[in-house]
User: Fold this.
Amino acid sequence: MSDRTLIRSALVAAVMAGACSLGHAAPFTLTGSCSVSSLVAGQGKCSLYVMASDNYVNPTMVRKGQIKVNGTLVHQWNNDASNPSEYSTLATDVGVSCGGTYTVTSWIVQPGATKYEQVGNMPALVCPAAP
Assistant:
């Protein structure tokens, strides 16, 4: 098991918020954690892992999906127009500054829609300080 995996397990600041249902979208859950990559002084870098998912029971058809951190787009997903798949999970791992506070949002565009709608919510994540 790598240092990163052990530290992620030890320092996870997992936050699960209530699901949000908009329009025809299934309820979405937005979760996240922040971890330090190394406990060696001066070598620690932080990683923010974020996942937005539908309820898996009634998968949602989505045209596009986005994850933003502090308002900056960090992950974009586009469905195949000719052979669309049902949406289940949108996830990304982003390098961030240790000790920082991060606001994460997730967005989707449903079939037939032209605008993104925010789905899922969670409180701001605070990353641990690097050693």
Observations:
- The helical segments are 3-11.
